[in-house]
Sequence to fold (158 residues):
Amino acid sequence: MTSHPVGSTGEGVFTALTAEHRGKLMALAREVSLPGGARIFEEGERADRFWVIRSGTVALDVHMPGRGRVVIETIGAGSLLGWSWLCPPRQWHLAAETRDPVRAWEFDAAAVHDLCAEDTALGLSLVTVVAEIIGDRLRATRTRLLDLYGPPGSGPVP
Fold:
């Protein structure tokens, strides 16, 4: 996944949005700071917010019986944390924990849903951005799985 630095106006992950749409969305943002080792959300819980990471890193993990928590991806500055808020049943598919102190913009999902209902062009643009991020993460996950479980010699070519 490609990460972009995020400035105070939420560029980065929202670069595909117009300046007007970015401004409307960022008006809903709340700056938060989280200490290292903080559990942000757990798999299966209600997904009622999302974040844009400004600094620090977050590990996305899943609980595997007999193995405990297994980290499947680590994201950093410029990354969107959380997309499960967008689609029913609006429950987290993974869990997230800060690896080190994190600064982020936090968005209330209900407020963003309301904004998207008021401005459908913004809503379509935001859904497109999130869909692209989901696609990038799925491709990265597929590559990692092929590296781990593919037949010998099927890994990436140098």
The radius of gyration is 16 Å. Confidence is low (pLDDT under 50) at residues 1-9. The chain has one domain: 12-145.
